[in-house]
Amino acid sequence: MYAADAFGDIDTKRCAKRYFPLDPLQLHAELKTLKDKVDRVDGLIIGSGFESADFSCLKQTGRRKILGTAPEKTNEISNKAWFASRLDDLGIPHPLTYTGEALAELIAGGKHIPLHYPVVAKPAYGGGGTANFFCKTEKELIRWVTELPDFLYQDFIKGQHASVSVLLSKRAAVAVSVNEQLIGVDSLSAPGPFVYCGNISPFVTKFSDGTCEIAEELTSKLGLIGSNGVDFVITDDGPVVIEVNARLQGSLDTVERSTGLNMVDEHVNAVRGELPERVAAKRYAVKAIVFAKQEGVVIENLEVDREGIVDIPEKGRIVKPGEPIATGIGIGDSRESACADAMKNVECIKAGVR
């Protein structure tokens, strides 16, 4: 396995035969430098951060080696305005959504803005929630629409954040796990109220079956393949779709530990047309991403506990406010015991930065 990413974590490098550092601000140029290497590999699995990347620089032989949803389709789905329109066509519940341009026209015409406050503002592309924020009043909304016309503006949906991990072949889909999402967690020093901080698997609600059915139907109709994820908010009335991640998801850590599946193997098998049987969770697993509250330096070797700490930075690395430091993992027979196990590792991570 070769790996290319922008972090260069110790455990990533340890798992890879070769490692290639990437500059996230120059992905297209970086992909050009990797194109000859891609031509020599057996398959290419695209992870997060590449949803809007331009893979046209790859030769046709390289593009055929992409294992998963085609980059053009991934790019289309990551366009939140297009995605909201598609959900309208399919009749699937989702937040009322307007582009900044559409709202500007309503404002200019003195017409009523049908959104409900607080309104969530988010970039038209991208995930992770790092740039999302609230517009709490109409005055705030009008100001931000003027300053950020390329953003989307949505109704805020109250409920529990969740995701469904789905495996798809060209003929069928199977949901393998419903996961609780950790969003904007203060104890993990999340730099914003919508920032993704990890998962807890499984997530059991009275809507679990229906949520899985929506995820399977939606990803199938979108024409996805391999491992994909659907983000939801579970309200008192049922699941509401927020977005789709047409790639391997951050919940991989907890899904694997909870179900016993190897999600990379299952992703490749699904692309080849082989899906697993439905699986039941064997245990609870927690993933908790720790963010830097202030600038600091990693002073400890966090690699000591390989089972409980992952995404491990090198000793001496400088972390800036809002950057992820490392991830604490917890496993247990109950949600409570798994969370307690994860928080012990979270405290070790925090203690390792000064």
Summarize the structure.
The protein has three domains: 2-66; 96-155, Dna Ligase, domain 1, CATH 3.30.1490; 160-351, ATP-grasp fold, B domain (D-amino Acid Aminotransferase, Chain A, domain 1, 2-Layer Sandwich).
Please describe what this structure looks like.
31% of the residues lie in helices and 25% in strands. By secondary structure, the protein is of the alpha+beta class. The protein folds into three domains: 2-66; 96-155, Dna Ligase, domain 1 (2-Layer Sandwich), CATH 3.30.1490; 160-351, ATP-grasp fold, B domain (D-amino Acid Aminotransferase, Chain A, domain 1, 2-Layer Sandwich), CATH 3.30.470.20. A hairpin with a 4-residue loop joins strand 7 and strand 8. The mean pLDDT is 93.
Mean pLDDT: 93
Helix content: 25-40%
Oligomer: single chain
Helix and strand pattern: EHEHHHHEHEEHEEEEHEEHHEEEEEH
Number of helices: 11
CA-based shape: globular
CATH topology of the largest domain: D-amino Acid Aminotransferase, Chain A, domain 1
| Rg result | 20 Å
- Look at the structure and give the CATH class of the largest domain: Alpha Beta
Strand line-up of the largest beta sheet = 11-10-7-8-9-12-16-14
Q: How can the largest sheet be summarized?
A: 8 strands, antiparallel
CATH homologous superfamily of the largest domain, by name?
ATP-grasp fold, B domain
Number of domains: 3
First CA to last CA: what distance?
Answer: 34 Å
Number of strands: 16
Q: Which structural class best describes the helix and strand composition?
A: alpha+beta
> Do you know the CATH architecture of the largest domain?
2-Layer Sandwich
Low-confidence stretches: none
| Amount of beta strand | 25-35%
